[in-house]
């Protein structure tokens, strides 16, 4: 539509209606409200530069401002001067969190509701999803991604540069060596995984990934003109995911930690803290800071087996207890209206999509159909969150709880199915939510080793849990028997969501993906002309019967060992 024909509308109305975007207006162009003609006047504010920083497997207790034994002065300072998100939810594992950030959709609406995308699976983020960086490109942003992708790469069309990023530098799989960038998907299935755009970056081997990614972000900031075009950078650190690797200088300050895994883990967090400090310095140095929004988020809960800690929350990475899904998060920006505070507003990782599109000048039509909400007013202005409910997930393929049934779900829902939902103050879990203990930060030199078997596990004959999560964030008092009325209401909500779910995308592994067949690297192996097939599902081996026999034979010795170790403690 020609701009001269748009009479009777204000400039902001045209922006909100989608007829005009920030990049379409001249640097000094505004509307004269009297005669509805465009004249030169004061500069139009440019949309903010957006820096989204995600860490991998960083636990709820693994940051300084949560009274951790890990020191994070840079992160603490940014959070203290911004808004800490203390009612913020993510997903329990890598791929789902990243898919929800990029699409703004629950994973039941993208087919990624089960597990992660494995390196040899012909699977990736569905092509019918318009991604967050694609929307920001439409709104005039220069978009860049640095770090871990983990959203599939079997076709070139799956790659970050085909899904909305102008540039990409990082690893495509879920876990790589921090120095060699080797990634393995089972014995003998290893390959190099560091990419520059759509090419393999062989020459970068030997450089610590946290440092390498930070250097790339600083280079982007140094070479871009902050006044000419708004910038979106998605920095997805590999840290602090296993393997536990860090330069020695970061380990030395934690030499007093007796637990080796915790010591290495703490060093890796400190390296990330330094990286964020250097990036913030670069934002100031190159003129971005005053018009920038920095968002910090974890992708899932920490893994105590690898040095992480979610204390005092229940559970760990891979579970739907709070320790798996309640994330670290904060927003730092000079543009915040109410700074230096803690927000209890309910925020979910899908909310970043509409929130950032809104900050970029987009209207609601650009976020139609997403499951997220625009929460900027809740974060910046301290208003009520528009979000009242979170579907954590419904996973029909996860091992069904043998104690669950439709009968135990009051004829509404089969409680054998792994699912979780929060509505208001209430949180419901069904099926097998995963390991559900409260694990303090590891301090014993040999932890976990044999000590792990001494920990308590969830009741094997239970398949429904209900918590008032606002009053009981540590999930210690199950109210499912006292409040069957609430249980029934939330089960009905699961039924509602399940009716909107798309089929699970979890195809069998493809032997053609083997790096040895592709020059020694993890790269796309399927031609874009090949048709997708989702009629086969990758089957995981289930050895629960064998495990049951073994557990019975060990039960006596475990009880004996428990008594002996309890006496020592």
Structure characteristics:
ten-stranded mixed sheet, 20 strands, 12 helices, alpha/beta, 569 residues, disordered C terminus, 15% strand, 24% helix
Description of the molecule:
It is a single chain. By secondary structure, the protein is α/β, with parallel strands linked by helices. Helices cover 24% and strands 15% of the residues. The chain is built from 12 helices and 20 strands. The chain has helices at 11-17, 73-80, 94-103, 132-138, 209-223, 248-251, 260-285, 322-325, 352-359, 376-380, 484-499, 544-568, and strands at 29-32, 37-40, 49-55, 83-85, 88-89, 142-147, 167-170, 182-184, 190-192, 195-196, 199-200, 231-236, 292-298, 329-332, 341-343, 347-348, 389-395, 418-423, 426-430, 464-468. A hairpin with a 2-residue loop joins β18 (418-423) and β19. α5 packs parallel to α7. The protein is globular, with a radius of gyration of 24 Å. It starts with 10 loop residues before the first helix and ends with a helix.
């Amino acid at each position: 539509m020609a701009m001269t024909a748009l009479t009777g509308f204000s400039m902001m109305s045209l922006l909100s209606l989608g007829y005009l975007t920030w990049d379409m207006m001249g640097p000094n162009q505004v509307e004269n409200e009297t005669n509805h003609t465009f004249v030169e006047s004061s500069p139009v504010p440019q949309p903010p530069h957006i820096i989204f920083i995600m860490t991998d497997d960083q636990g709820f207790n693994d940051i300084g401002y949560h009274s951790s034994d890990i020191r994070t002065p840079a992160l603490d300072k940014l959070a203290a001067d911004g808004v800490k998100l203390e009612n913020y939810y993510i997903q329990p594992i890598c791929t789902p969190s990243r898919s929800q950030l990029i699409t703004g959709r629950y994973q039941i609406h993208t087919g990624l509701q089960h597990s992660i995308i494995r390196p040899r699976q012909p699977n990736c983020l569905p092509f019918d999803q318009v991604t967050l960086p694609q929307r920001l490109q439409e709104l005039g942003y220069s978009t860049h991604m640095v770090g871990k992708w983990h959203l599939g790469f079997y076709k070139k069309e799956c790659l970050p540069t085909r899904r909305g990023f102008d540039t990409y530098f990082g690893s495509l799989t879920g876990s790589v060596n921090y120095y060699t960038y080797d990634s393995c998907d089972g014995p003998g299935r290893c390959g190099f995984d560091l990419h520059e755009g759509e090419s393999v970056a062989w020459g970068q081997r030997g450089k610590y990934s946290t440092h390498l990614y930070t250097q790339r972000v600083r280079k982007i900031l140094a070479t871009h003109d902050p006044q000419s075009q708004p910038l979106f950078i998605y920095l997805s650190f590999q840290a602090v995911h296993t393997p536990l690797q860090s330069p020695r200088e970061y380990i030395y300050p934690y030499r007093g930690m007796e637990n080796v895994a915790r010591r290495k883990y703490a060093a890796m967090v400190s390296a990330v803290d330094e990286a964020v400090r250097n990036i913030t310095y670069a934002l100031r140095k190159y003129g971005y800071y005053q018009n920038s929004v920095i968002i910090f988020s974890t992708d899932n809960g920490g893994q105590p087996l690898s040095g992480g800690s979610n204390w005092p929350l229940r559970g760990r990475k891979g579970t739907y207890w709070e320790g798996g899904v309640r994330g670290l998060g904060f927003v730092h920006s000079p543009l915040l209206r109410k700074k230096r505070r803690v927000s209890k507003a309910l925020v979910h990782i899908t909310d970043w999509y509409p929130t950032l599109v809104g900050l970029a000048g987009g209207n609601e039509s650009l976020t139609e159909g997403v499951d997220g909400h625009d929460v900027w007013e809740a974060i910046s202005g301290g208003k009520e969150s528009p979000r009242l409910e979170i579907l954590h997930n419904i996973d029909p393929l996860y091992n069904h709880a043998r104690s669950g049934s439709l009968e135990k779900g009051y004829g509404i829902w089969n409680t054998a199915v792994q699912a979780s939902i929060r509505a208001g103050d209430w949180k419901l879990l069904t099926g097998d939510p995963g390991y559900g203990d409260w694990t303090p930060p590891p301090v014993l030199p040999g932890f976990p080793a044999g000590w792990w078997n001494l920990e308590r596990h969830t009741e094997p004959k239970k398949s429904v849990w209900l918590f008032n999560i606002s009053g009981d964030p540590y999930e210690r008092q199950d109210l499912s028997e006292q409040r069957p009325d609430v249980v029934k209401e939330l089960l009905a909500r699961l039924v509602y969501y399940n009716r909107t779910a798309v089929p699970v995308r979890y195809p069998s592994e493809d032997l053609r993906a083997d790096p040895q067949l592709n020059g020694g690297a993890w790269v796309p192996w399927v031609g874009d002309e090949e048709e997708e097939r989702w009629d086969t599902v990758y089957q995981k081996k289930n050895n629960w019967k064998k495990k049951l026999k073994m557990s019975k034979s060990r039960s006596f010795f475990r009880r004996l060992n428990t008594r002996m170790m309890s006496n020592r403690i």
